[in-house]
Amino acid sequence: MKTIQSSFKTALLLSTGLVAVAGLIFTIYGAVSPGQPSFDQVIKDNSKSMMAEGRQTFRFDTFGDEAFWGDTLQLHLAIEGANFGGVGAGLSPETALSLGLKVDVEMLSSAIIDQLKKNQLNLSDPAVTLLLLKRNAVVGLTGFFNSNGSLRSVGISCSLCHSTVDNSLTFGIGHRLDGGRTAI
């Protein structure tokens, strides 16, 4: 009888110890306190944050290449044209769209969208290109502006070649479609 009691006590102590160790391990490696997200949720949130950060980099980071396009080639002067302090006629949205550039409709104000729908926005005016650049609406092309509003430089991001739009508003103007294929 003593052996059975002794074995029972040993088993009880051992199971209590295992539960305590398991509880400690759970506390260290995976416990979720009330009000705290689970580890899976932390991973999901981190993944979502990294995707948003990556999308921002892909769409808008020029990695400093505006030094080449602006300082060396002076491309911004040809884009803005002589009427705005540059050279030549300037780059109209009409010409830019015909060359394969795209416009992200989500970066446009409702007033601009309404003007486009009613054909009231002059797409042959380089001033409209500058407006689109100021709104970060030209897919893959980032404008850098002086404090007086003139174009100082332009830079190119990954999305110039690897994004397109769905043409939901008109040809070349729509919702972005980011991807790994060449868009132009």
If you had to describe this structure to a student in words, what would you say it looks like?
The protein is mainly alpha-helical. The protein folds into two domains: 2-32; 59-178, no CATH class. Helix content is 49%, strand content 11%. The protein contains eight helices and six strands. The radius of gyration is 29 Å and the shape is elongated.
Brief summary of the model shown:
By secondary structure, the chain is mainly alpha-helical.
* Number of helical elements: 8
Number of strands: 6
Shape: elongated
SSE sequence, one letter per element? HHHHHEHHEEHEEE
Q: What is the rounded distance between the termini?
A: 87 Å
How many domains in all? 2
Oligomer: single chain
Strand content: 5-15%
The strands making up the biggest β-sheet line up spatially as 1-5
Provide mean pLDDT, rounded: 87
- SS-based class: mainly alpha
For the biggest sheet, the summary is:
2 strands, parallel
The percent of residues in helical segments reads 40-55%
Unreliable runs, pLDDT <50, ≥5 residues?
none
Radius of gyration equals 29 Å
